[in-house]
Input
Amino acid sequence: MIHPVLLCGGSGTRLWPLSRKSYPKQFAKLLGDESLFQASARRLSGIGFETPLVVTGDPFRFIVTEQLAGIEKAPQAVLIEPEGRNTAPAILAAALHLEKTDPDALMLVAPSDHVIPDSDAFRAAVAAAAEQALKGDFVTFGIAPTRPETGYGYLELAKGADLAALCPQPLAGFIEKPGAGRASDMLAAGRFLWNAGIFLFTVRTLRRACEAHAPEILAGVTAALDQAECDLGFTRLAPDPWSELPDISVDYAIMEKAENLSVMPYHGHWSDLGGWDAVWLEAGPDLEGNVCSERATAIECRDTLLRSETEGQEIVGIGLSDTIAVAMGDAVLVAHKSEAQRVKEVVATLKASGAKQATEFPSDHRPWGWFESLATGPRFQVKRIVVKPGAALSLQSHHHRSEHWIVVQGTARITIGDEVKLVTENESVYVPLGAVHRMENPGKLPMVLIEVQTGSYLGEDDIVRYEDVYARR
Output
């Protein structure tokens, strides 16, 4: 059996404003009705595949389980990184977790934000590579290039290797992202593949390579896993040994030093969706080259992407060419399509200026549901809060604010001090400053309420928790 390992800790800054640190691109519905993470989990499933092992960060643990449940899947484990340390520690943590039950487990490591439309063809490529991996090779998957791309790393096939082969081929080495001229030369040479960052190998193979090439990473990850805590079914890696680990990719730490390397050529379609230009391409431009979302209109435009990400918000382009325009309730991006890779510079600039839009998503996702701020001003804030069926917020109090709650959909079970009562649509309650309170959704449909906060400080850190079914800290 193959154990899929899904990595989903990145921030996807090149797809800002839809992808942000608090809600990165792998969880967004960029193409179709499923998120990239859901599509990845579905792709790496079926006959011959175990349920996925996921490595992610603390803010995303409930998003992971919720999105897997949305496609009727459950993870075999979710490992929580105390902080991002790149792919080498994350992959090794997954391997050591699997090693506890099967030292020869076959791992398929993949990012959770790639687009591979033909799942059957990709699973066939994985099956064709399995024997070589079981023999002790690191098998990496190389994508047959279709253009002289400068945004990807490359894999160089060894002499005598066949780019068109349907089985793993010997690998000569890894090539960093090239300039335009070098990329054109490699495309013409016919022995280079795009590096997809997808690997197939056994736990034993990785352990031996770490012992030879990265013993300090092996020691640190082992300590982090040995000292890990179980938290509501999640495995929290210990923060102290984890913080001492280098921030390093598996390519640099292991693959570029190993000799037992093979590459499985893949000739199907693939994209890492690394920018809005890639989204434009993957979405399928019309005859004028335009891609428009719902609530988007293009008038005499060519080769343009127009997206509105907010209900009730219309975006209209007139006479545009080679333009990207993405509108959200709190931020708008307008760029020439050729400058798509520079969007990450926008995030850095906004962070330097202290703009919360750089990292914070307008909708704040929580294990019980989500909320968004509708209006703010001196000493007040208005929020819309959506609570999932059967979910409950923590029992809590605030030092600096009072709250009014107005239920607009469903029924809420409200606790204020010693009183517990049901509040239905068009009814409201008042939560005084300092009162211990909780809201729950006892129904079978989402419950929606409007919250009006008033006080001297309205930050999310003004919460004293007494009980929490999600064991948040």
Remarks:
- The first helix runs from residue 36 to 43.
